[in-house]
Amino acid sequence: MLQQWPDTGAIDIDEVTVTYKGINCFGKTDGPGTDEVYATIGTIAVTGGPDQPVETSTIRTKLYTDVDNGSSVPDNIVLYKGKPFGLNISFLLLEHDQGDPNKYYDAVKSSVQTAAGALTTAIGGAFGPVAAGVAGPVLYELVPAVSKGINDLLGTGDDLIGNVTIPLTAKQVIVFAARTREFTEKQINYKLPTQLLNGDGSSYKGYFTFDKA
């Protein structure tokens, strides 16, 4: 599939793989001892297909134990493999206390599925690259919808470190996969970091990479 924009020239790419690469700790949470943290990640991908124009997934990482100031925790979880027609990534990072991680998983999954329904409606009968063009602006509009269900649960158990939803247009996904070089921060190779997530006295980032499938 050949894609082209005035500032990129032609890019030949059919499918992409989007992978979560782990976290870096720039400051642990307040209190004694080290952190025990985990992430829940929801994705909404525009596939452009007539039968399944939008695909969703929700995953929860393992519990990362003994995380201290300066710790690097690499991981490698494929979040999406398919057509590069646009993507939303919701990243929720918590420090495990007395809460039930399944509550946060369910909240992310529900919010992602609700937003995906709105995106499917917005795309309508458009498919392929046309669907990508329709979806681009809508992906940004969905950010508050994805965040609402998650925010309703915060403060009910585990301690929030940070929560961010990243909308990516088809062009951004394609350029990340085909043109952007990987960077390294501490022990993690990546192409896209989250913003610095600050909560409960701590500072963390999550990381993602994109490749041609």
Your description of this structure?
With 213 residues, the chain is an alpha+beta fold. The chain has one domain: C2 domain (Immunoglobulin-like). The strands form four sheets. Strands 3, 7, 12, 13 and 14 form a five-stranded antiparallel sheet that branches. The chain is globular and about 55 Å long. The two termini are 12 Å apart. The relative contact order is 0.25. The model has no long low-confidence stretch (mean pLDDT 91).
What's this entry about, in short?
The chain has helices at residues 101-123, 128-141, 143-151, 170-178; strands at residues 2-5, 9-12, 16-27, 35-46, 54-60, 64-67, 72-82, 87-95, 159-168, 183-185, 188-190, 192-193, 197-199, 202-212.
Q: Segments where pLDDT lies below 50 for 5+ residues?
A: none
CATH homolog superfamily: C2 domain
What is the number of domains?
Answer: 1
Q: What is the CA-CA span between the terminal residues?
A: 12 Å
- The string of secondary-structure elements, in order, is EEEEEEEEHHHEHEEEEE
The multimeric state of the shown protein is: single chain
Structural class: alpha+beta
| Main sheet summary | 5 strands, antiparallel
CATH architecture: Sandwich
What's the CATH class, please?
Mainly Beta
Backbone shape: globular
Calculate Rg over CA atoms. 17 Å
How many strands? 14
Number of helices: 4
Strand content: 35-45%
Helix content: 25-40%
Under CATH, the topology can be stated as Immunoglobulin-like
Rounded mean pLDDT score? 91
Using brief descriptors, characterize the structure shown.
five-stranded antiparallel beta sheet; 213 residues; globular; Immunoglobulin-like; 14 strands; alpha+beta
